[in-house]
Amino acid sequence: VKIRPPPRVPSLLNVLVYSLLPLCVLSLALILALWMYRHRKPPYGHVDLSEDPGPVPPSPLVGLKPLQLLEVKARGRFGCVWKARLMSEYVAVKIFPVQDKQSWQNERDIFMTPAMRHENILRYIAAEKHGTNLE
Hints:
This protein has helices at 12-40, 101-111; strands at residues 67-76, 79-86, 89-95.
């Protein structure tokens, strides 16, 4: 008959080290990755309002360029947004009803504000009027 020694029970310190050490290393790596990401990317929405890019150029005549409406993307109270093709690039076209002329003027003024120039904001290209009594 062989007598076997009782199995070794791991100490509490060993259990804590082997279970918490990987969690701490993983947490440290995650914090370091987030810190590096935030410091490489410019802050969200940063716009230098002190820099004046100058006057906005006048609206070109879109009527002279081939604009092809392709599909309706959305309809709402203030008009209809279309996906369109202007020459060789895709553009968004918003068509306002005649009764919402003031909304159109407000939106045009907002998009023509120099501080609104940002890569994530649609750029105002031009406006065109169709129909009679639109003045």
